[in-house]
What does this fold into?
Amino acid sequence: MEEARVSRFKADKFFQKTERLEKEIDDLQKTLQALRRKNEHLTALHETSLGLIDRLDQEELLEAILFRAARLSGTENGYIYLLEPGDSEMQMRVGMGFFKDQLGRRVRPGEGVGGKVWETQQPVLVHDYRYWKDRIEDKTLDDLRFVVGIPLKDGKRFHGVIGLASVDPAQKFQDEDIDLLGRFAELALVALDKARLYASVRKELAEKKLTEEILRGSEERNRLLLQASPDPIVVYTRKGTAVYVNPAFEQTFGFSGDEVFGKQIDFVPEESRFETQKAISRMLRGEKIELFETKRLTKEGRILDVQISSTIYKNKDGRLIGNIVILRNISAQKRAEQELKKYRDHLEEMVEERTAELAKTNTQLKQEVEERKRAEKTLRKREVELKAQSHHLEEVNTALKVLLKQREEDKKETGENVLSNVKELISPYIKRLKNSRLTTNQQTLVDILESNLNNIISPFISKLSSRHFNFTSMEIKVANLVKDGKTNKEIADLLYLSKNTILFHRHNIRSKLQLKNKKINLRAYLLSYDE
It folds into this structure.
């Protein structure tokens, strides 16, 4: 017994050691697996960091980061939203797998996982997107299961969202996936900063290059403008020596550029020196000289009337370098002004003569006005008389309307009397005649007589003849018999005509009633006129 108890005790000890050893081995394997996975993550982060060194395109950087994060998390589905400064919506700029067809999607704060991360600026983990209360109502997203989103933000502002997702219910994201995604988010921010810095530098260089091209073009245009200007132009230094004259100056004043270069141009007449010196003083005080009229000498000694506009120019430090003078030869204009003054004086004389004539004409017009006033007085008197006549005519017109109305009522009363007399004095005898012994032909004639009598007292005949149908007397007879239900043969026998003639009249009746090619019964249509 003792030996058995000892054996069981040793066996229990052995099993306990075995269980502890298996647990330690399992923990060690989990630790090794976690270390291996962490090492893979660190390796991927390191490789991604190295891959960022030579990539300057923003889209390529973000695609590389998203691809490595998705591969380490065991999924093929991921996206990156970016928020531009001042925008009210984020746009999906990078997408892979499930989100490849979602590129360009825009969300506001609180919409979907991206919008929720933007709103809270915290990581968001969704275990089943189908039943998540803040999901986007879009059937194309019904296949999503687990979704994780990480904010892209720094101390300055919120930049966007990086996210991963699975469509397999068995694939779940762990805390280490969120941690990994956070590290990749930091890399994404570095990539963004680098790409934006590169883009900014490239833009600045392009702008600088463009500015230099513009400056070179501007200098060339200015040179061409000076040469093409029809007005003489002189560029002076601060000391008053000429450093440039354009072709118009050479042509107007006769001085070549070589003659005046580096010298003071002596072409101011004695009588204009004082006013010229005053203008130069004002210009040096910062005033702009515009259209200053004075005189200048040509090389041959001719005096020209000129308008001068002058402005100073400075270097980048603001120091005065010299001034530019534009001269416009207005000698011809001055001569024209003198001629114009003579012509104006002549016009004034003509105006005085014309004024006297106008005064005479004015007196005549006053007389005509007086005559017109008297005529208007006569017209107003005539107008009063016409108004009185018009009032009288209106009263006569009213009386005529009353008489016409009475005439219509009398006409109506006469019709009613005829109707009453026919019904009381003629209809009873016709009925008695129909009940007597008559031949078939006599019976038919009595029926026609009764029908025609009814037509006389009914509106049918008057409607057919009074409307715009323009029925003939024979067409009225045929229409009346058709309305009574007679066949074509019966109508032909009664009117002693052929059947083809009756068909001809029926065709004309349908044409005038606009029933051609219409499936409308002629008798039913004619009966409607008795209503």
